[in-house]
Amino acid sequence: MLYKSESGHIYEQKQCEECGHEFFHRRDCHDECPICKRKRRSSKPDLTDPAIKITYSSYYSMLSRCTNTNHKDYPNYGGRGVMVQPEWIESFDHFLADVGLRPEYTSLDRISPNKHYTKDNVRWANQHVQNLNRRKKFQGLWSKVLKPQAEKP
After folding, report:
1. pLDDT tens-digit profile of 66-81?
2. Which stretches of the chain score pLDDT less than 70?
3. pTM above 0.70, yes or no
4. Alpha carbon 51 to chain centroid, angstroms
5. Rg (CA), the chain
6. C-alpha neighbours within 13 Å on the C-beta side of residue 43
7. Do residues 101 and 107 touch, judged by C-beta distance below 8 A?
8. Residue 64 and residue 15 in contact, taking contact as beta carbons nearer than 8 Å
């Protein structure tokens, strides 16, 4: 059954293959069943397991830094264009399968600090490794301004 809205969009009635729910789907968009979509987005991992809990904490912090404009570190991440692999935004399970559980005394590190959070560019690293992997913030102008001047005789 087709339905045309006042704005001219054409919708068709579909039935979800997973749950059987009937819904209207806009023909020019890739819509999925709203009930299944909500279940996937709201499913949280079992945070009673300490290893899962600490890994989820790192995952959630990564998402917040890159997507939440109110996060204090957003200007250094999402504000600079650093993005998260789309599968990871959709599901913690995808992140966990790609990166694994967080080992003790480590945190999430981007191998190249100027690239995105992707499977090939992240690792669990200790603080020493992360300190060696920082981007250089004040190169250029500051190094010239702070360079000591030779004394005149």
Report:
1. 999 999 999 999 999 9
2. 1, 28-31, 38-43, 135-153
3. no
4. 20
5. 23
6. 11
7. no
8. no
The contacts of residue 126 (CB under 8 Å, 6+ apart) are 105, 106
CA–CA separation, 20 and 138 (whole Å): 57
For residue 118, the one-letter residue type is T
The sheet carrying 2-4 orders its strands as 2-4, 10-15, 22-26
Cα gap 90→108, rounded to integer Å: 18
Q: How many residues does the chain have?
A: 153
DSSP 3-state percent helix, strand, coil across the chain (nearest 5): 40, 15, 45
Whole-number Å distance between alpha carbons of 39 and 56: 18
